[in-house]
Amino acid sequence: MSNRKILNFINGEYTEGTAGKFFDVINPADGSISAVVTEASTADVDRAVASARIALDGEWGQMSLTARLDLLDGIADGIMAHKQDFIDAEISDTGKPYGQVAHMEIPRGADQFRVFSKIAADVAESEIIETPLPDGGVAHNREFRKPKGVIAAICPWNLPLIMATWKAAPALAWGNSMVLKPSEETPSTAALLGMVMNEVGLPKGVFNVVHGFGENSAGGFLVAHPGVDAINFTGETRTGEAIMKSSAVGVRDVSLELGGKNPSIVFADCNFETAIEGIAKSCFFNCGQICLGTERIYVEQSIFDKFVAALKQAAEAMTIGPAVGLTHQKKILSYYRLAEQEGATVVTGGGIPIVDEEFVGGAWVQPTIWTGLPESARLVNEEVFGPCCHIQPFVREEEAIIMANDSSYGLAACVWSGDEGKAHRIAESLNVGVCWVNGWMVRDLRTAFGGVGMSGIGREGGIHSMEFHTELKNICTIMPSV
Ligand code: NAD
Question: How far, in Å, CA of 121 to CA of 302, rounded?
Answer without folding.
Answer: 51
